[in-house]
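It would be a great kindness if you could assist me with a short task in structural biology. A protein sequence and the C-alpha cells that stand for its backbone fold form the material at issue. I should value your view on which stretches of the chain appear to form regular backbone elements. The record follows directly beneath this note.
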Amino acid sequence: MPQDIRATSLARSAVFITLDAAGRAEQVERRISDAIIMGILRDGEKLPSETQLAFQLGVAVVTAREALESLRNQGLVRTMRGRDGGSFVTFTAEVREQLLQNRLRASSTVELRDLATHYSAIAGMSAELAADRAGDDDIALLTSSASDLDTSSETAARRQIATFRLTVAGLSQSARLVREELRMQSELGPLLWRRLRVADERLKAMTELEALAKCIAERDPDRARSASLSQINHSMQWLIREKLNAELPETAQPEETNP
C-alpha cells in the first residue's frame, strides 16, 4: 500500500466496491445509507445511475433499483427525471438521528460488543504496523491531523476521526487492513462515534488521537496498539450505556408493593 494514501478518496471509492457474491438489495441499501450517515456521500450529491450502480457493486439492475427505492422511502435519496435528472442524496440531521436510533434499538449488546472486538483487532494491528512502517513525512501529517481535530460539531469530528483511522490503516501498508477498516467504519462507525454528540467527548477524542499519533511517531508498536484499542473501548462503553439507558423506560417494571 503506498504511503501517500488519501483516506477520503479511499472512503468514497470503497462505497462502490463490488459486494460479496449474491449481493442483495438490503446490502446495497446498507452500503449507501452507511456512507450517507458517515458523511462520505454528502447532501445533494448525485449517485451513479441504476445501471452504473449495479455494474460497480456487481449486482443485477433490478437489485440496484430496489435498493434505491428503499433509500427514497427512508428520505435518504430523491430521484429527478429529465436531462439533468438522476438520484441525489438528501439528508438531514433529523433523518440521520432517527436512523441511528432505529439501528441502535435493533442491535443487541452482544452483537455490538462482538463488532467492537472485531474492529479492535483490525484497528489495533493497523496502529501497530503503522508505528513500525510509516515514513517521517507520513508521521508529520498524521500528527498534524490529530492536533487539528475540529471539535465544533459532531459531524466534523466524526468525519475527521474516520479519516484519521483510515490514514493509520494506510500507513500499515496492508491493503487488506485498509479494506477491513473501511468495512468496519461502515458497519460500526455511525454507532461507535455516537459519543461525539457531546462536546466534552469530542475534546476527549482529540486527546485520544493525539496520544495515538504520538505513539506512532515514537515508533512504539505496543503503545500504539494500546492507544488505538483504548479509544474504541471507551466509545463502545459509552454506546452500551446509551443503549441501556434508552431501553430502561421500556423494560423497567414498577416494584410490587404489599397491600
